[in-house]
Amino acid sequence: MHAKPSAPGDFADDGHRPVAIVLVGLPGVGKSTVGRQLATLLDLPFVDSDKEIEAAAQRSVAGIFESLGEAAFRDGERRVIARLLDGQPKVIATGGGAFLCPQTRQRLAAAAFTVWLRKDVEAVIKRLGRGRSRPLLRGADPGAILRRLAQERYPIYAAADLTFDLDGVDAPAQTLGAVLKSRLPWLRSAAPPSR
Fold first, then answer.
1. Do the Cβ atoms of 181 and 166 come closer than 8 Å?
2. Could you tell me the CA-to-CA distances from 84 to 4, 78, 147, 178 in Å, in that order?
3. DSSP code at position 193
4. Residue ranges of the domains in the chain?
5. Distances in Å between the alpha carbon of 58 and those of 4, 18, 82?
6. Beta-sheet pairing, 162-165 with 2-3
7. Quick one: which of 47, 154, 146 has its CA closest to 99?
8. What b-and-e string marks burial along 13-31, b requiring 16 or more CB atoms within 10 Å of the CB?
């Protein structure tokens, strides 16, 4: 895990203002799993943006992709993430493509602390198996699709405020929680934000 150095456009706050902690990364890397555990450890609400999109659309992510297409899904994703950035501290797990939208990245830079959960793509492929439940991985070779997505997306994910490598980490939520507490003083306060 490493934190990238500060640069113009990076998280501009000094870490004293409570904000959303937003997890980004490849599909299947574990954003929802780590996010739920992290939220519990930090005593913050947890939100899965894909579940919020499904609730708003009243259909599954796969159903949205099938009936309306990826462009409609991405538009809904952008709007849902904008709604979730309501100024209240929480942990948000995003879909794998959410951070690709320049508008979303700009909103996140202004209102959240972003964490790229990075994992070796071969380990993600093994974790997902055939990947049939994920709309973008329904092709003949989900492994090849994930490798391509990693090549395309890793340079964009690198714009996150923190890169956290999951490879070889036994307790990722606990380790990430400790890193975040060292970076964000509001997480160390005696009175955690109420749910």
1. no
2. 25, 10, 30, 24
3. P
4. 2-9+18-185
5. 38, 31, 19
6. antiparallel
7. 154
8. bebeebbbbbbbbbbbbbb
Residue 130 pLDDT class (50, 70, 90 cuts): low
| 90 three-class SS | coil
User: How do the residues of the chain divide into helix, strand and coil, expressed in percent and rounded to 5?
Assistant: 50, 10, 35
- Burial per residue of 101-115, b for 16 or more beta-carbon CB atoms within 10 angstroms, e otherwise: beebbebbbebbbbb
Q: How much is the mean pLDDT over the chain?
A: 85
Alpha-carbon distance 77 to 93, whole Å?
12
Of residues 72 and 22, more confidently modeled = 22
Question: Domain 2-9+18-185 adopts which CATH fold?
Answer: Rossmann fold (3.40.50)
Residues facing 165 on adjacent strands: 118
Question: 90 pLDDT exceeds 90?
Answer: yes
Beta bridge partners of 22: 92, 114
| H or E element, residue 69 | none
7 or 66: which carries more pLDDT confidence? 66
**20, HSE (Cβ side, Cα atoms, 13 Å):** 26
